Amino acid sequence: xxxxxxxxxxxxxxxxxxxxxxxxxxxxxxxxxxxxxxxxxxxxxxxxxxxxxxxxxxxxxxxxxxxxxxxxxxxxxxxxxxxxxxxxxxxxxxxxxxxxxxxxxxxxxxxxxxxxxxxxxxxxxxxxxxxxxxxxxxxxxxxxxxxxxxxxxxxxxxxxxxxxxxxxxxxxxxxxxxxxxxxxxxxxxxxxxxxxxxxxxxxxxxxxxxxxxxxxxxxxxxxxxxxxxxxxxxxxxxxxxxxxxxxxxxxxxxxxxxxxxxxxxxxxxxxxxxxxxxxxxxxxxxxxxxxxxxxxxxxxxxxxx
Length: 305
Known about the structure:
6 helices; alpha+beta; 14 strands; three-stranded antiparallel beta sheet; 305 residues; 27% strand
């Protein structure tokens, strides 16, 4: 069991306790928090409370989180856009809307489920039975190239390259506004947003160093098409850094306008290029995922404005 403690300030006053805790705990759904309340794992000022309790400033909430039991992912016949495959690695062009590994609400329709079916279980086990083969992730609504490993040796090699920041990762994005400079670098630490646990943020106190290099590809009237090269790989790094600059990604309702134009589903972000030293041959290899149709069509619309 893991014990967590939260202090309620004025900003949380009057919220139902299940909503308050859901906002404080990364990756936990409201239904799961309600289950914890029913199982008597939550105390307010040392006392049990009903799920309808509304928190007050000064409340001390303690929560006992049961140790997770990680289920095994299952193989499913999901069509994959394979860019390259050998005995050690497989490169996938991930479509928009696909989650990388199983999670609440996406237990059997993820990239991992499809990889397990295609690779017949021949995937690295370093990241456990829920994330076999997965070395790095890209967000659900981010498209583009992603590598998975078929054995632990390959996994360890690529994980080491990620740690040393030697893997080439180039992304394409459309951002709000017109960037003045043709190129630049954002060097700002990224960590959990201390007021909203769902979001990441530039966090000087608790963030980890994050570096994004960018250059302008094309300017439009109200938007800019850019290429970003990651030196580090923090969660939501490009999305956070561009929002921090005042140029959030088009379609990103988490870090930008709540109602983006062009009826987009999620941020306009594409993992275009991935390059690394092959774990078996020692040769540098680079892979490119073509621009998805929605992205190309959006660029044409912006050019016609």
